[in-house]
């Protein structure tokens, strides 16, 4: 459950000088954005639960990441907490088990920075040191990925007189590697979709993504892709115009070395 932020009128007697709680926002004139909770007072959210990626809002936030042993790894700030958590899960999965975060929807950059400093001070007082991901010289948490490729959209959001099966066929046959997933490349919405794309990313594969949950651009795709492949689950991977399998099969193929051969257009002997 998210803790809300309170907005109160700014007056000369207001304590906006207090960096721990009251953060002056340039984007809200004569108002003071108040961070309701400190680090330990903010609820913790498991990033993955029963194979599903937890839902995070597309909002600015201050956040802290914990590993599976409940040890704090990194404190950051972001304009989109959902995308940032997904990126951390991709880049440092062994250290991204749970997240504390507080949304600050009207906060300026300075306000977010003030909240981040307050959480860093609290972590320092609690543990005696800064989180390892914030250590000088550490780059894996702060690194910025290149702008991701755009996902393929079957339509422009307008009704067309083309069967969805033909659109699927066109995408599958005209692209070497295609992953039909729940969510987008930068923000997958299920753990299995995240796993499949992580495998492809780790192998540095050039691949396309189609979001089966995008009903505006891909109406009816979630059911149609299952009919097309005669496979009951999503995500689904296609290579060279042929269906390869779902997340578990792709993972097994990586272990056996078969996926590497398939991606190169070879076959197992």
Gist of the model:
This protein is α+β, with helices and mostly antiparallel strands. It is built from 7 helices and 13 strands.
Shape verdict: elongated
Rg (CA only) = 22 Å
Mean pLDDT: 82
Number of separate helices: 7
The largest sheet, given as strand count, sense and whether it forms a barrel, is: 4 strands, antiparallel
Low-confidence blocks of residues: 1-34
Structural class: alpha+beta
Q: What's the helix-strand series?
A: EEEEEEEEHEHHEHEHEEHH
Helix content: 25-40%
Widest β-sheet, arrangement of strands: 4-9-7-8
N-to-C CA distance: 53 Å
What is the number of beta strands? 13
Strand content bin: 15-25%
List its salient traits.
four-stranded antiparallel beta sheet, single chain, 269 residues, 7 helices, four-stranded mixed beta sheet, alpha+beta
Structure description:
Helix 4 (191-202) links the parallel strand 10 and strand 11 (208-211). It is elongated and about 60 Å long. Residues 1-34 have low confidence and may be disordered. It is α+β, with helices and mostly antiparallel strands and 269 residues long. Strands 4-9-7-8 form a four-stranded antiparallel sheet, sandwiched between helices. A four-stranded mixed sheet has the order 11-10-12-13, with helices on both faces. Helix 4 runs parallel beside helix 6 (247-256). It has helices at 81-91, 109-127, 164-174, 191-202, 221-229, 247-256, 258-263; strands at 6-9, 22-24, 31-34, 44-46, 48-49, 52-53, 61-66, 72-78, 98-103, 177-181, 208-211, 236-239, 242-245.
């Amino acid at each position: 459950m998210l803790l809300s932020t309170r907005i109160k009128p700014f007056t000369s007697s207001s304590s906006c000088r207090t960096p721990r709680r009251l953060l002056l926002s340039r984007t809200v004139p004569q108002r003071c954005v108040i961070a309701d909770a400190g680090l330990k007072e903010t609820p913790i959210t498991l990033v993955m639960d029963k194979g599903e990626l937890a839902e995070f809002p597309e909002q600015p936030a201050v956040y802290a990441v914990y590993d599976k042993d409940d040890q704090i790894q990194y404190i950051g700030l972001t304009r989109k907490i959902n995308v940032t958590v997904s990126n951390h899960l991709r880049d440092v999965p062994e250290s991204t088990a749970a997240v504390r975060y507080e949304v600050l929807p009207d906060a300026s950059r300075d306000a977010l920075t003030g909240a981040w400093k307050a959480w860093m001070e609290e972590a320092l007082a609690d543990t005696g040191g800064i989180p390892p991901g914030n250590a000088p010289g550490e780059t894996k948490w702060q690194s910025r990925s290149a702008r991701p490729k755009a996902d393929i959209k079957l339509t422009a959001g307008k009704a067309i007189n083309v069967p969805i099966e033909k659109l699927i066929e066109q995408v599958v046959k005209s692209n070497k590697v295609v992953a039909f997933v729940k969510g987008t490349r930068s923000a997958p919405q299920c753990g299995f979709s995240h796993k499949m794309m992580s495998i492809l990313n780790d192998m540095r594969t050039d691949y396309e993504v189609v979001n089966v949950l995008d009903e505006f651009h891909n109406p009816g795709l979630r059911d149609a892709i299952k009919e097309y492949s005669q496979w009951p689950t999503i995500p689904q991977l296609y290579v060279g115009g042929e269906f390869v399998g779902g997340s578990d099969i792709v993972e097994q193929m990586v272990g056996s070395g078969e996926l590497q051969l398939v991606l190169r257009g070879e076959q197992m002997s």
